[in-house]
Amino acid sequence: MAFKRKEAVVEAVDLNSITPQDAEKRIILGVKKYATNEANWSRADRNTPYLGHVIGMGIESANLADITMSIERQFLTRKTKKVPVAGSETEFTLEDGELGKLRILEGQDSVMATPGLTLQKLMELGHMPADLAYLEGVASFATSVTVGAGYRLNDALLKTISRFRVLTGPERAQAKANLESLSTQAKDYETLIGDPAALAASKANDFETDKASLTALNNELAIVNEKLKGVTSDDPSRTASLRSEETQIRTRLRMMLQKLTVSEEAVRGAGARKAVDQAKYDEVAQILAKTVRQAQDCLAEAPVGG
Amino acid sequence: MKLQRFLGNLAVPFIHVFLTIAAWRFGYAFRDLAAFRRRAWEALDGHDGPVIWAANHLTLWDSFLIFYAAFPFHKTFVSRRLPWSTPEHTNYYMNGGWLKRHAVRTFMYLCRCIPFIRGGEDEASVRWRQIAFEKCIWVVENGGTVFVFPEATRARNGWFDACQPKDFLGSLCLRVPNAKVLTIYLRGESQVGTTAYPAQGETFRMDAGLWDPATCPGSTARSISQGLFDRIGALQERWFAGSSMLKNCSGDDVVDLGSPLAREHFSDDGAGVDPEWAARLLTPKEAAYLRSRPLGEVFRTFWRFHAAKEAASKALAQAGIKVLPGGFSTIEVDLFTRRARHLPTLLETRLLFTDDDEDKLHCVACLRGGALGDAQNPGDVLWKVVEVPPGESPSETAREACLELIASSSDDIPSSACLCFTEIDDIPRVVRHGKAQDWGVSISHSGRYAACSFMVS
């Protein structure tokens, strides 16, 4: 059966034979067809998010799997030998073997939000040698998420300013409250991203939610185990049903652990900044400050009537 | 039953002390406990007859938590007010080895439990339920109190659905017409959905009211149950009004089926899908369902799964459950029952495919806050799908369409100019009068189409 993606012939390259910079270029070129924001894609670098229209390449979430597969198609690796994970029938890790197609396993692409983070992950997984000089220039996952949210907030505030400017009468009075609210929100966000400790604390909510979910799942597993202990030997169907439930909970635990790892990364990254992260935070803080000033000028200049 | 009641009377002060210690051990706190107890007992003391307790159900410890919340120690000596509980037999009576099993059974016996088997339609299960029901009747007819969870199970979406009444309580009320119902809503401040136990350090907030089924219009089991479900639903609304959690959690997604990218992983006739790609997006169960579809339906079925997952992930995010980017295999969709289940938490969203034609597919998902409705009954979710004008930004088109839809749906909002979008914790929110509203707003776009949805409940 011919699938259209196979029409694109890509010559895969050994990740150990190219520089991260070259790999980065290949990744960006590979996702071009999914990028709906041509302008952002054409000037994309290692820190440009794949998703999002404001500063990202505008790739839609429906194409996330395509990004991963595009990356897989372009590179070869020696980590090709499947080694089963103890206690699991379906999970495996990839160890050194013959040179072959890169395989990004489920969950490994969760933090690959930018080309730089993709390469950082590939280095962590041993698909290519770690290049510390390159990684110095890669903004963290936490930075990518937080800065992206800052730009979106800035965009929302700019739109609210332009709406407010053309309004008159009672609509203007209602829009004024909205503009004040968004202006305050943007100011608060600017303050928040200026304080790494406070930012990390704010990101801890997601982490705590995920941790609580993990605890809840462990409780469920303990209950199933207790039920298994209570099954009499003449009830094999109940044993089978509980065993199946146990397997399902273990799968759910694995999924939740992946999520917890990402939330943990977001908290850790929010509290520790490299120079590149700080530059990104400073950049968005300046933009937010400028827009907040615009909003305040706008509110001060034009009194509300009606 | 009389012996169980007698022994239960003797044990209950000790059980109360035990629960007090347990609540302390788990760091549980009950907000405005004294005021809640005072309100509940003012209502109970004003009624001489039997009482049926009916509450929402989210954790396996709800019976204990509600009993502890409603009962001050000195009231544990009022035997007829002590509730008989109706726990699921398989959850409590078959756990652990011999010693633990017998210890738990003894404890449950002293807690005046009447075990139920809620699942199974075999003769033994049906007979068990009938006997348990008659025991409940006996308790209430003798002036006592029975505690029932009217949903008969823990709510998988963390939401007491007043639109899905079960007849059990209505039947009970019909058999004992002088009984009143104490409706209760208790929930931990961080309780998103169903869990085995509440989280350590949880703070509970609760509300209650006494309801006389005789005031209910109609006298069928269903009409009484509906009246009761409406009462608990109203308590839930009040609970969420005082919560930091969003009440309305819904999402939407649109797919442009004519987009070349949508067809990229399918064979030219749309009958075959690239298995490697599909495996990244579908669970094994979904993939098996897809394989079972007639060849002409593979393409559309795949995108139904995808749209449902996207919509569900947005609804979940509003409840604080964020699905990782690309983590679509953590959501499992059942297109037959129209539900999407988040596998790590088992939270379930309901689904509705609104625009489903050759060109596009639009799906809305609702986790909580209201109903999706059907052909006969309009739901609480409104939506709109529009074409993106050439040269316009799809996301901007979706936002504008959403604000216009909201403004046109309310006489109180003069125009969409009185609203604006913002984002809080990565969730899109509409701002009105300077305040972010709890409207379960969602926007989406794909190729030529932009779409939005929000909740009017």
What does this structure look like?
The complex is a heterodimer of chains A (306) and B (457). Chain A has 306 residues and is mainly α. Chain A folds into two domains: 4-138, no CATH class; 140-306, no CATH class. Chain A is built from ten helices and three strands. Chain A has a three-stranded mixed beta sheet with strand order 1-2-3. Chain A starts with 12 loop residues before the first strand and ends in a 5-residue tail after the last helix. Chain B is an alpha+beta fold and 457 residues long. Chain B has helices spanning 2-25, 33-45, 62-70, 89-92, 98-110, 123-141, 168-175, 221-241, 260-263, 275-281, 284-292, 298-318, 394-408, and strands at residues 29-30, 51-55, 83-85, 145-148, 180-188, 203-211, 249-256, 331-334, 339-342, 347-356, 360-368, 381-387, 419-424, 427-432, 435-436, 442-446, 449-455. Chain B has a six-stranded mixed beta sheet, sandwiched between helices. In chain B, strands 7-11-10-9-8 form a five-stranded antiparallel beta sheet, covered by helices on one side. A three-stranded antiparallel beta sheet of chain B has the order 12-17-16, sandwiched between helices. The longest helix of chain B is centred in the first third of the chain and has 24 residues, at 2-25. Classes of the chains: A mainly alpha (306), B alpha+beta (457).
